Fold this sequence. Notes:
The structure holds two protein chains of two kinds. The longest helix of chain A is centred in the middle third of the chain and has 32 residues, at 182-213. The radius of gyration of chain A is 29 Å and the shape is elongated. In chain A, 68% of the residues lie in helices and 6% in strands. In chain A, helix 2 (21-41) crosses helix 10, helix 8 (182-213) runs antiparallel to helix 14 and helix 10 packs across helix 11. In chain A, 35% of the residues are buried. By secondary structure, chain A is of the alpha/beta class. Chain B is α/β, with parallel strands linked by helices. In chain B, 32% of the residues lie in helices and 29% in strands. Chain B is built from eleven helices and 14 strands. In chain B, strand 9 (198-203) and strand 10 form a beta hairpin. Classes of the chains: A alpha/beta, B alpha/beta.
Amino acid sequence: MFNPRLRAVIRKEFIQIVRDPRTLVLTFAMPVVQLFLLGYAATNDVRNIDLAVVDRDRTAQSRALVASYQAADYFRVRFDADSEAELRDLVDRGRARAGLIIPPGYGRRIVAGETAGVVFVIDGSDPTVASTALAAAQLTGQAEATELTVERLARRGAAAAAMAGPAIDVRTQVWYNPDLVSAYYMVPALIGLILQFLTIILTATAIVRERERGTIEQLIVTPIRPWELVVGKLTPYVVIAFIDMVEILVAGVLLFGVPINGSLPLLLVLAGLFLVTTLGIGLFISTISSTQQEATITAIFFNLPSIFLSGFFFPLAAMPPFLQLLSYAIPLRYFLIIVRGIVLKGVGAAALWPEIVALTVFAVVIMGAAALRFHKRLD
Amino acid sequence: MTAETVIAVEGLVKRFSAFTAVDGVSFTVGRGEVVGYLGPNGCGKTTTIRILLGLLRPTAGSASVLGFDVQRDAERIRPNVGYMSQRFALYEELTVAENLAFYAGLYGRERHDVAERVGVADRLDMRAGALSGGWRQRLALGIALVHNPPLLFLDEPTSGVDPEARRAFWDIIYDLAAEGTTVFVSTHYMDEAEHCHRLGIMNAGRLLALDAPHVLKATRVAGPAWDVSAEPLLPLLEALGRVEGVANVSLLGDHAHAVTNVGTHDAASLRAALAGVGFGDVVVREAEVTLEDVFTALAGRRV
């Protein structure tokens, strides 16, 4: 490399990283561990909700209804309760998340062609499970009801009407992720999250460490230019971040079968742009912190809300307007759209230009702010 | 002093909100001089050095180093000065050789020849973090010298280092000065201060005097100095302080050290005065005036 000062800083920084094996191991192990945890645990795919049944009817018809709930893999019939009191107890203790109560006379009403009522109880304390259970319970019930109606019509000789089917036939198609696998949605987003966590914390502490140990004073009195110091210190972390990104992509494909539909080079270029913003944030944090501990806490203070305000877990559209507004200040928000767009939808730069512009603006502003605060003086 | 002025400071003031760290300091340093700054911690030594290096902006006054203004042209000063800060700026994870190579690189140099000069050539592969105090000091000096600067700032370079290492360190400094390197060094050690060609006495942000140590001792102290031994020691100090004609008293190891005004006392009259207040068995010897006496006389307090 032509610039000896820049080369000296990069080499020194790499030596320091390599001589700190614990941090190094964490740096490369963290993405896989996170991917594993979030890929499997952070899933909204609710399956096998434990169901308790109170069948006070005990007829062929009631058993058929229970069987239809059993058949849908949303539910798993775990308990056969004798009374509503027992059902309540099971739900209270969290052993069952939902309950189906079939009143006496259900079978008789079905056979008589009347409307028979059942009660479906859902434990609403976990909204994600509850909303899935609610939808699944209604769907399963309606499917069973439609089947019964068709049977009845057939018995009354209205075979033609029954054959004709419902008046409106809505065929749904899910694009990009037809099986609605959470991992497909989470794995690309995880790239953004881990890149951000890693780069912000590592860069913030790496620079503050110089201040804490008093070496920054010695650096300032050398002829090094601020940009050389900054670029030299950040370069190793950019390299690490890219290695981590490839690591996540490979693990995502191998472990979760995430399809990469879009252009990998485009993803790498835009990840580079995103890194400029996160490195800028780390740099800025380093200019306002005087100890590594302070820098770490500030970095966490920024990182945690950005998980929620970026749309990583919860859709932005569901948030109150104030929080939606706040989310525009979170660069991860834009990168998540980019990375999910490229990986899941296979879209190109043309579809992502608003996010690219937003990230560019952010990168310029934060780097400018950090550069203004980063000068070769102590006061 | 040689004709060529390397450092020129005029009316320098530095305030940190309500606290005045440097209060109207003026002096010049010539090429090849070893100039010391003696004073207690917090008297403005480090602040002065930091201003001269362009690390801090002065509140008032002006300073130039190597002919460049420290505020406007700090970047033109930096390639030509070496700096050894109070906290040795070593990277503990790096070896001695890697530390030197890193700083050499920052000055745009591929190689350097300081390892021999500061005596770390046989420890190049040791981690800086594993070095003991004296070796850390040598490495820190090596870092300051890696680009052969004509001007060297040393901020309390030997704090926490044993006397033998301190002597070895000063041998290197003298060699440098003999070759024409200008050295500006702050200290609160008297023996270290004796090594300087000229010595500034600093207290509470003010430069009280700046001259050769022997001139300071001859002109800034009230009169002759005496070593006085008697038991018990602490009441002796008090008694000495009340004797007419005694300018100041200090404790020096196992005996008292006193300075008397010119023409007021000889050994016999001091003994007599002490006998009058109950100290019968007193040994009084004429002593050398110390820099401590100079500081006490100028600052009205001890270092």
